[in-house]
Amino acid sequence: MGVTPPQAEVTAKTLAFDGIDLLAASPRERRALRGKRIAMILQDPKYSLDPVMSIGRQIVETLRTHEKVSKAEARERALAMLEAVQIRDPARVFDLHPHEVSGGMGQRAMIAMMLIAGPEMMIADEPTSALDVTVQLDVLGILDRLVSERGMGLIFISHDLRLVSSFCDRVIVMYAGKVVEQLKASELGRAQHPYTRGLLNCMPKIGADRHPLPVLDRKPEWAA
User: Fold this and answer.
1) Does 224 have pLDDT greater than 70?
2) Cα dist. 19→23, 131, 164, 193 in Å?
3) Which of 138, 63, 122 is nearest to 94 (CA)?
4) pLDDT in the model for residue 93
5) Of 124, 141, 125, which is closest to residue 133 (Cα–Cα)?
6) What is the pLDDT of residues 163-181, one digit of tens each?
7) DSSP secondary-structure letter at 100?
8) Which range marks the domain in which residue 181 is found?
9) How far apart are CA 188 and CA 33, in angstroms?
10) pLDDT tens across 136-158, in order?
11) Does 8 fall in a domain?
């Protein structure tokens, strides 16, 4: 996405997206990709949405940045996208500011803003961590439906291993910024790496004595 701070270190030799090396891409090329072909849902909408702009204005701005459409058409498409992410009365929500909506509705509005330009790849960074369980399921259902209907790729970043094992197809486990294990989500319970095993062992289990819960014992060699 090109949003890492200047002091960040990227160790990959190449980072390719549809034949484009993102590490060698110019700022102009990145701006054309970001939001249009690659989009990102951040963790908490109240820290990511602009507090002084209405929700509808932010969605329209995203669309008109990447496509030459009139204000009227942009508004109609924004309302349709708000409806697509299961927001009731989208015309009312369009004119609200982020602080006037709940966390779940704010997250749906952010998903609408990220989807309005029709991205090919969506990065969802802990998109449900700030939501209650019932709203989590609604948001995941929206993402799942959009992936299946649009053929959009989804990178789902989460610490919730139960959620990952049930929602994702493939799991990549990272430690200290490095990949330590890759496996099918359905086989997560059979993970072999000690870090992955440590994460799994820290989860509570129904019918088992887990008091106190085990603490992850970090080891220096995991980062090697």
Assistant:
1) no
2) 12, 36, 28, 32
3) 63
4) 95
5) 141
6) 888 889 999 999 888 889 9
7) G
8) 170-224
9) 33
10) 788 888 888 878 888 889 999 99
11) no
